[in-house]
Amino acid sequence: MIHPGRAVDLGCGHGRNAIFLAHRGFSVEGVDYSREALDWAAARVAEAGVAVTLTNRSVFQWEPEPASYDLVYDSGCFHHIPPHRRLGYVELVVRALKPGGWFGLTCFRPEGGSHLSDDEVYEHRSMGGGLGYTEERLREIWSQGMQVRQVRQMNKRGADSGLFGEDFLWVLLARKAAA
Ligand SMILES: C[S@@+](CC[C@H](N)C(=O)[O-])C[C@H]1O[C@@H](n2cnc3c(N)ncnc32)[C@H](O)[C@@H]1O
Description:
Blueprint: E1 6-10, H1 16-23, E2 27-32, H2 35-48, E3 52-56, E4 69-75, H3 83-96, E5 97-108, H4 118-124, H5 135-142, E6 147-153, E7 169-175
Parallel strand pairs: 1-2, 1-4, 2-3, 4-5
Antiparallel strand pairs: 5-7, 6-7
Bound molecules: S-adenosylmethionine.
S-adenosylmethionine (SAM) binds at residues 11-13, 16-17, 31-34, 37, 58-59, 75-77, 80.
């Protein structure tokens, strides 16, 4: 059970997850480098009648107060992070979390992503729309500084369910060690 607290949604896009968390009692910030996405998020936040602080910045220019978040959430941002920035991104997430804080991730499975290896990203100078990850690779990456609690394929949801769910995505839950 993750109790409501201070949360940040990295690469928040139009804010659907930030709004979801705000509705459940979290104090939420959203960070995204797309001005258009954040304008859309601001309109949706206002319509939802919740409070979400939106920051128009690359995650790499975002400077969180260390150990200040109960939850860091990333739905669809990590798989757009180029290989040479990957470790820095993991360090950023771990630094931002309080001891005992949680990290939630949604990213492409191999069949959902671009099939490019790290070397091919630089050969082609393209991420090909986002990188796919194997479970083993995801566990290896996110075990640096956290304990990976769960990695599973996302449940596919029908359009009429009111929920987002695609089976070409992973969901990962990790926890930073308590002090
Ligand atoms: C696939 S969208 C997901 C949006 C939202 N999280 C969702 O699940 O609906 C990925 C988002 O990450 C943002 N993004 C990608 N790389 C980023 C970076 N380095 N810094 C900030 N935002 C980034 C993009 O602008 C985009 O809004």
